[in-house]
Amino acid sequence: MKALVKEKAEPGLWLADVPEPVLGPGEVLIRVLRTGICGTDLHIRNFDAWARQTLRVPLVIGHEFCGEVVEVAPGVEDITPGDLVSGEGHLVCGKCRNCMAGRRHLCRDTVGLGVNRDGAFAEYLTLPASNVWVHRVPVELDVAAIFDPFGNAVHTALTFPMVGEDVLITGAGPIGLMAAAMATHVGARNVVVTDVSPERLELARKLGVALALNVAETPVSEGMRLLGMREGFDVGLEMSGNPRALREMIANMAHGGKIAMLGLPAEEFAVDFATIVTSMITVKGIYGREMYETWYAMSVLLEKGLDLSPVITDRFSYRDFDAAFDTAASGKTGKIILDWTA
What residues correspond to the site Important for catalytic activity for the proton relay mechanism but does not participate directly in the coordination of zinc atom (predicted)? Predict the structure, then answer.
């Protein structure tokens, strides 16, 4: 079968012929239909410091996907050939304290699909049945392919109540855009999105946010003034990992404000802890998705009318992966989809 492989310990990806995966006990064999390109995949392609430290090559990459079930192992229930599925890309041990307590997203021994084991950028993959999410209601293939990052957005955005609140989202990448769509959908009052990319800010406007602010030109405090806000933001969703973005968010939070931080910084940086203490600001780190409460919430949100289509901006055949990755790396687009049927 064809697969996108990190064949060598150097920058680049290779479209290669690899053996089809063999179905193991408790697993599901899936024919891949669509995949989404993630920032992690860009790091792997570039073979940066994180990738050099983390990967063992050769490796089939990719963890955002949807596909059709081809075969299930004996004993697997509630999943049948022909089902449309997505997959939870964090494979957990099931034995540590958090797993045993039902907090599987906090497993200390998580294995990452497409990072620590062969992934989804291939014509077929196998996945433990416990990691397979069956779409029980109709969903577009492109949207089903991005349930993994959509889950990051939902996990972050639902961490703190947002109904009637003023929400600041720093970072208008695909996950930030999905979080913005969700915040508006669930009834936040003012949703403000910040970035330095005019193209991504325009996507945020299409999602109906109150204000899409280019912070290279206009500070957050001025955006608050334009909206008639006086006391700061109630909820902050930090999606960029940018030190300046978090510092500006902290400076513009209301007393008692709450920050959910998904953006992953490249290195340590200083923040104003005096303001966090004196304003009693809560900062909570977010990683991955809650298994599987987040997945249930995603499906219900889509069923009740949440529209993610503006977030998906470009589609390519998997054979044109280099162009697709270049587009994703430009920092000017939303989500990029690879079609494995074309």
Answer: 148
